[in-house]
Amino acid sequence: MLILNKTAGVFFKPSKRKVYEFLRSFNFHPGTLFLHKIVLGIETSCDDTAAAVVDETGNVLGEAIHSQTEVHLKTGGIVPAVAQQLHRDNIQRIVQEALSASRISPSDLSAIATTIKPGLALSLGVGLSFSLQLVGQLKKPFIPIHHMEAHALTIRLTNKVEFPFLVLLISGGHCLLALVQGVSDFLLLGKSLDIAPGDMLDKVARRLSLIKHPECSTMSGGKAIEHLAKQGNRFHFDIKPPLHRAKNCDFSFTGLQQVTNKRIMKKEKEEGIEEGQILSSAADIAATVQHTMACHIVKRTHRAILFCKQRDLLPQNNAILVASGGVASNFYVRRALEILTDATQCTLLCPPPRLCTDNGIMIA
Ligand code: KG4
Ligand code: ZN
What we know:
With about 375 residues, the chain is α/β, with parallel strands linked by helices. The protein contains twelve helices and eleven strands. The strands form two sheets. A six-stranded mixed beta sheet has the order 1-9-8-7-10-11, with helices on both faces. Strands 4-3-2-5-6 form a five-stranded mixed beta sheet. Helix 7 (about 195-205) packs parallel to helix 9 and helix 7 runs antiparallel to helix 10. The model is unreliable at about 1-15 and about 20-35 (pLDDT under 50). It holds the Pfam family TsaD. Its EC number is 2.3.1.234.
C-alpha cells in the first residue's frame, strides 16, 4: 500500500501553504457586504481546455470548455504536440468565456487554481504558464491542483459527503481505488498495473474503426463502445476478467485489449473483411468488452470495500463509494457498481456525467 502524493510538488509546496493561509484569512465583518471567495479553475492536463468560476459554496458562476476529441479521433490518438498547440489556441478564449459567463471581473477573483499534475507535460505546461502569467498580472494567489484529487472531490460539489469515503477513479489516463480521509489525505488501495480502462476502450474502438461508424463518428472511444454495446449481445463470446486470482485491489486492462484484438482479427477473417472496415459483430464485441471491464472493476472494488470494512476504515453501514472519471460516466459500469453497493450496504455516488469527464469546475 502506498500513500498517494500530496497535492503540491516540491516546487509548489511553500506557495500552497501561503494560499491556504490567505484563503483562511478571509473574515466576515458585520456591517460590511460579505463577498464569497471566488476561484477561477483552469484544466489542461490532457485533451480538454476547460475553465470555470466557482464560489466557496459550490455555485458554478461560469464555465467553458473546448474538447479536442474530434481532432484526436482523426489522428488515431492524442499527439502531445498537437494537444499543446490546441490548448495554446484556445486557453485565452475559454478563460474569457468562463469569466464573462460568471459576470465576475478578474480583479474580484480570490484565487486561481490550475491542474499541475498528473497529465501530459506539454498540455499541463500551457495551463500552468497561462495561469502564472494571470496570477502575476492580477496579483492573486495560485492554488496548484492534483487532477485526480479534483476528480475524487468533485462529488462534494453535488452531494454532502463526509470523510472517509472510498473513491474509484476510472478514466483515460488513470485507474485507482483510494480511501479519501481528508481533502488532501488519500490512502491508495489499488491501481492499474498497465493501461487505464478508458485507454483500453479507446484502443478497442480504434481497432474496430468506430470513427467510420455513422452513429459514433464524433464520440470518444469509451462513449462509442457504450453506445454500440446497447445493440450487442455480450454472450456472443466469453473473455475471463483479468487478475481473478490476485489478492489485492489492482487492475489490469492490457490483456483484455489483446484478447479482444485477437477476436477482432478472427472475426475479420470469418467475415472476409480488412482492418479498417466495420465488422457486422462490432456491437457484440463492444458489449462483451464493456461487460468484462465492468466485472473486473466491480470485483476489485468489492475487495477494497471488504478490506476497508474489516479494518474499520469505513463504517459497516452506509459507507460511501464515489465513482468518477470519464469511464464512470458509463451507465453499464454505474449499474454494475450499484449492484455491488446494494449487496454490501454501501451507497454509490457518481457526479453527473459532465462532471465525471475533465472540466474546469472540478479544479475550481
Ligand atoms: O476523465 P477523462 O475526461 O480524461 C482523463 O483524465 O482521462 O476521461 C476520458 C476517458 C476516455 O478514455 C473516454 O473514452 C472515456 O473516458 N469515456 C468513457 C465514456 N465517456 C468517456 N468510457 C466509457 N463510457 C463512456 N460513456
Ligand atoms: Zn480526468
